[in-house]
Design brief:
37% of the residues lie in helices and 18% in strands. The protein has 510 residues and is α/β, with parallel strands linked by helices. Bound molecules: nicotinamide-adenine-dinucleotide. Nicotinamide-adenine-dinucleotide (NAD) binds next to helix 9.
Length: 510
């Protein structure tokens, strides 16, 4: 029997994520001072934000239900004043009391069709927040804002470093940053999340700006949040219109770019088109697994489906669906967008069968797209994958052990720092459009994105296969290292060369 591969997480996420950095630095003989500059972030901003929260209605425990079984139902006329949260609680807005007819016992009431709830008092809450500015030698710091219960300094350092390599690989004039708030968004109302967003950006106001540090959406943040962050920074400024580029990923109606919402998924698909072309194949008919059905997962699935690929399995935080003939992606998108589907989940979709969480990556397919959180392709998962390629749409989805197994099993890899670079590339186009007061068409954006992703992936592939060449799109001759290497190290080698140029040609101020 094969021994099970256990990922022993003895190192920090940051140390793990830097393994490719050290491999590539050795290989290309990175200048020692540049190496020291790149080993740690420029700045680590760690701070706290506070907000006022509303009272809640919290479902009573199973044991308590019996005690209140004769409690009459209350009638709340202003129905929308009870805001359902994804965690099953209801936020009690004050207007709920208008014309209400309420029976309370020991602080418990019965809401028709919803059940028994205990009133819990709101009040001030404190959250830990971060903004890591990793490196700015190539341009302003750039990176997303994540709202999640499991974030940490360690994670944000790793993600901010990744942004530094990614902006260099995409060859856009930005550095790397990342940040966010340690919060479980499923437990807070829209208004409370808005207050968290406003306080977060208010505290950062003195260290961000269109030429300093430019946040964007990441997990659990979106164009609406970018809009209010932009307003928070620009309100009261003498030239607010000149500062619209302070955040990217905005709605197209207020200075966002056409194509930005789907850009990360689109970039992943451009990478997969190239991967198929190297094999003399096309994506039509290929079977695909997508983990994560948020911004990146939905766009990847939708675009691949339109190209004739079959999305045979989708998994999110709450459920997994499978259909070996291919899921009806437009129907799945509509299911996730149903207003009462508060978690935006694929769970309960009737166009496929339910699969146990742990069996998802074992499904038959040619392409695996992790588009959720980090660390999902572990050594064990990699042992059981049946696919030909892993396209890392998420940041850091493969553990070092997973990486080793993929290599041993000769499963192709499109590393995250190129595979999901479409988002930051179109963020750069958005920033350019804001500074120039222009509005480009979606076709213009996608043409530029396609050229950029395919050229830079081409260079990485040439470095990996040691095939220096000059094509009409790019010149890989000065980047190859004289031997074949894996794709992740090749991507890092390209990033480090481009960053090193800045230090060596501009010199160090003393
Ligand atoms: P999102 O919040 O829109 O969606 C996240 C999805 O992942 C949701 O469907 C959620 O249910 C699912 N998920 C969470 N935990 C899971 C778990 N344990 N198992 C399975 N599914 C799980 O986030 P997003 O913006 O789509 O980002 C997804 C990934 O892509 C992240 O790693 C992010 O850093 C990366 N990324 C995003 C962008 C962008 O433009 N949004 C750009 C580059 C990289």
């Amino acid at each position: 029997m094969k021994a099970s591969r256990k990922d022993t997480r003895r190192k920090s996420l940051f140390d793990e994520s830097m393994e490719a950095f050290y491999r590539a630095a050795e290989l290309i003989k990175l200048d020692p001072r540049v190496r020291l500059e790149l080993e740690e972030p420029d700045f680590e901003h760690i701070f706290y934000i506070t907000i006022e929260t509303r009272d809640r209605l919290v479902p009573v425990t199973k044991e308590d239900e019996a005690r209140f079984k004769d409690l009459p139902a209350s009638s709340v006329k202003a129905g929308e004043a009870l805001e359902p949260l994804a965690n099953g609680q209801l936020v009690l807005h004050r207007r709920a009391l208008l014309k209400a007819d309420i029976t309370l016992r020991e602080g418990v009431l019965r809401i028709p069709k919803r059940g028994l709830f205990r009133i819990e008092k709101g009040g001030p809450k404190k959250f830990k927040a971060y903004r890591i500015q990793y490196n700015q030698v190539r341009g302003p710091y750039k990176g997303g804002v994540r709202f999640h219960k499991d974030v940490s300094l360690d994670l944000f350092k790793a993600l901010a470093a990744d942004m530094t390599w990614k902006t260099a690989i995409a060859d856009i004039p930005f550095g790397g940053a990342k940040g966010g708030v340690r919060i479980d968004p499923s437990a807070y109302s829209k208004e409370e999340i808005e207050h968290v967003s406003l306080r977060f950006i208010y505290k950062l106001k003195s260290v961000i700006g269109p030429y300093v540090d430019i946040p964007a959406p990441d997990v659990n943040t979106n164009p609406e949040i970018m809009a209010i962050m932009m307003r928070q920074v620009t309100d009261g400024e003498r030239m607010p219109h000149a500062m619209r580029g302070v955040v990217t990923g905005k709605d197209v109606r207020i200075g966002g770019s056409e194509g930005r919402a789907k850009a990360t998924g689109q970039g992943t698909v451009y990478c997969l088109e190239e991967w198929a072309r190297w094999r003399g194949e096309s994506l039509a008919g290929k079977r695909v697994l997508v983990q994560g059905f948020g911004n990146v997962g939905t766009a990847s699935a939708e675009i691949l489906h339109a190209l004739g690929a079959k999305i045979v399995g989708v998994q999110d935080a709450y459920g997994t669906v499978h259909n070996e003939k291919g899921l009806d992606v437009p129907a799945l998108l509509a299911h996730a967008a149903t207003p009462d589907n508060l978690r935006r989940s694929v769970e309960g979709f009737t166009g496929g069968t339910k699969v146990a969480r742990e069996d998802f990556w074992k499904l038959d397919a040619e392409i695996a797209i992790p588009a959720a959180l980090g660390g999902s392709i572990t050594g064990d998962v990699a042992e059981n994958l049946k696919v030909q390629v892993v396209a890392e749409a998420a940041n850091g989805p493969t553990t070092p052990e997973g990486d080793k197994v993929l290599g041993e099993r000769k499963i192709d890899l499109i590393p995250d720092i190129i595979c999901n670079a479409g988002g930051v590339t179109v963020s750069y186009y958005e920033w350019l459009q804001n500074l120039r007061m222009e509005h480009w068409t979606e076709a213009d954006v996608n043409n530029r994105l396609e050229r950029a992703i395919k050229a830079n992936l081409g260079i990485i592939h040439d470095i990996a296969t040691n095939s220096p060449q000059k094509t009409p799109l790019y010149d890989s001759r000065r980047f190859v290292v004289g031997k074949k290497i894996d794709m992740r190290t090749a991507a890092m080698a390209l990033a480090l060369r481009r960053i090193e140029n800045h230090y060596l040609l501009e010199g160090f101020s003393q």
